[in-house]
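Troubleshooting entry. Yesterday's outputs looked truncated, so today I'm pasting the complete records for two proteins to confirm everything comes through intact. If either block looks cut off, that's the bug. Protein one:
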Amino acid sequence: MPAIASSAPGKMILFGEHSVVYSRPAIAVPFLGVKVKVTALANPLAPAGQVKIEAPDIGLQTTLDQLPVDHPIAIVIHAVIETLGIRSLPAVTLRITSSIPITAGLGSSAASAVALARAASSFVGYPLTNEQVSQIAFRSEQRLHGNPSGIDNTVVAYAQPVYYIRDKPIEFIKVAAPFTIVAADTGVSATTADMVNALRMRWQADPERHEGWFDRIAEIVDLARSIIEHGDCAELGPLMTRNHALLQLLGVSSAELDRLVDAALKAGALGAKLSGGGGGGNIIALVPAGSEESIAGALIEAGAVWTKSTVVSSRGDS
């Protein structure tokens, strides 16, 4: 049996992180400049049903039966088996490699789950649909992040820019004109689950104020969608900066994120904000075409540990 390889891109949230957990809209796009790749190789000499897992990027080499049942990788594999209605996978080695930085807000865990689900199901000859893959990845995200919005698994599984409201059908966005984003990482790790849970406690303590902030973010998201689909995408810049200011009020930014946002704006970015769970991770900046290198250089000088640029279009080109 030949090797089967599947991959999944990273993602960026352009607008609406955190408020999306509270049933407000968000816009996210795939980031094809980074990806997770999973290769499935048959092991004809191994015991029947043995699933060997190799993930060198995180130092993991084990078998499925040695993983806790609630390990994210185990959740995905068992969910694939359940969805396909089979008893087990044939003896196989699943090798997972990734160029997506972990805990950087670029959807590393969702991309890993999507690529793994696709590789495992394709290996047995029954590739899952995008919707099935997205639902399986969401189960893994729940284990990792507690109460995820569902946007990461959705945009990664479909690899299209999306407008998303929790528990409603996804809507794909047509991008009127491509635009350029520079992402920069603070080098500070923060888990999405911790940030989401801490914000929930603050919301419970003062729901009226937080609901007002969520409503203001929702207005920004809807205006941004209209601009992306019909207008001049340079107008997204001020909206990004306004969204970041609201995320600061929500308590999910940090000194490091704020410093990079300020550096991007001073270097000529049209707008900038944190992207993802916050507390650390990365910022994204809307930049004029051709200015990527100069703005990236300014971000490195301001303390970013890496930068990556991407062009967003209807095809999710990045």
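Protein two, checking that the full record survives here as well:
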Amino acid sequence: MNRLFVWPTAGIMLAVAACQPPDSPPRKGSIEDLVPLTQYVDPFIGTGGHGHVYPGATVPWGMVQLSPDQGQGGWDWIAGYNWEDSLLVGFSHTHLSGTGIGDLLDVLVMPVRSYFPVNESFEDRWGRSAKSRFSHEREGASPGYYAVYLEDQEIQAELTATLRVGMHRYTYPETDQPAVFVDLGYAMNGDVPVTTSIKVVNDTLVTGYRFSQGWARDQKLFFAMLFSRPVRSLAFADSTNPLDVMDRRQVSAGDVRATSSALRALFAFDPTAQGDELLMKVGLSYVDEAGALANVETEAPEWDFHRVREGARRAWERELGKIRVQGDSEEDLRTFYTSLYRTRLAPILFQDVDDRYRGADGLIHTAQGYRKHAIYSLWDTFRAAHPLFTLIDPDRVDDLISSMLSYYDEHGLLPVWSLVGNEINTMTGHHAVPVIADAYRKGFRGFDTAKALGAMVKSADAEHRGLEYYRDYGY
């Protein structure tokens, strides 16, 4: 389906075209041969004040949002980061963008230059050993990439991502105690870890999971974490209680699992010279640990940070190139393309490379004939974002609606505000209904239209959330 729309606006001209699928190789003469548009995206816009957005690395519709975290709860840190702050406690792999309530921030990782007791207690974030001050002068971000210098650790941290994998590159100083701290108990703004676990597979691979309750009342996230250097030793703790310490021989033997309500781990490595690098690949899955590992092996099989970063950049160029803006104001271009960038951050892809996903019923399903998506903030997005998708994302609209219909099959109603498979019922109305109606009126038929109509009627007739007043008074 190819469409072209041209609008003259105040001082600029917009040409909108439906482009090739984002995973396709670039065509000769394609948008990537034109002026790069990622240069106009500033991920830091909106990170101050009450903006509630994150600056970290992700790709369009990506399951992974790898971004810095500051260890501070509250309204202005819902996305984990606020521009006015000057402390970092690590980098977690899931974030919400622009929401009014906080959750996620799962699988926190922090590189450190020296060992510390993994069972240490601290009253606030400033008491953590795994922390660092930073300055904006040594911080940078662009679509699919984030970098910052950790002043107290003297470590340069860089992040990039694929759809389901976050990739880290840490450049260490000279130290005989380089380490990485993983805190599965890290939680902010109402999120509470319930069960967390790490399995040592061998000296370069661990897998695990983090089950939690928060805005998403039953979240199950799995991960596979690979290191480019072998682990020298490993210490576990449950919050402040030491659980186990493993030496190189035990780590190499593998097949050890630690489980607790709030697990911490310190992975120690051989001494580093100035400028030595440690790379990490962290694959996510909402299905199981095997799915997380398969996602890594498929999307990031090599230890090539530059290649992953370049792949993310090219994916963003293709997405941003769906609308070409001509104008003389660089400030307007930056505002426009940063806004367009943020429309690609949710919904997110919610299936593994083998098409499995965890449904709203808690069971494992397989998406057949469509790409399963999650995180539908429909009260926020039905007015503008979804109509925009029908114009510039015709290859994705049917997937988005089919995802809503699979949610209906599993939950019994269309989504109101679905967060990683959980119905959180935030805000009013059933705005999946106008989203589906709008797509149908525009000619989209790549979903089960009969099921869609039945789901729309059943959701509108539901006996909850004040819907009876809409019917009684004719609204």
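Both blocks look complete. Sanity check on protein two: Residues 72 and 198 are 25 Å apart (CA to CA).
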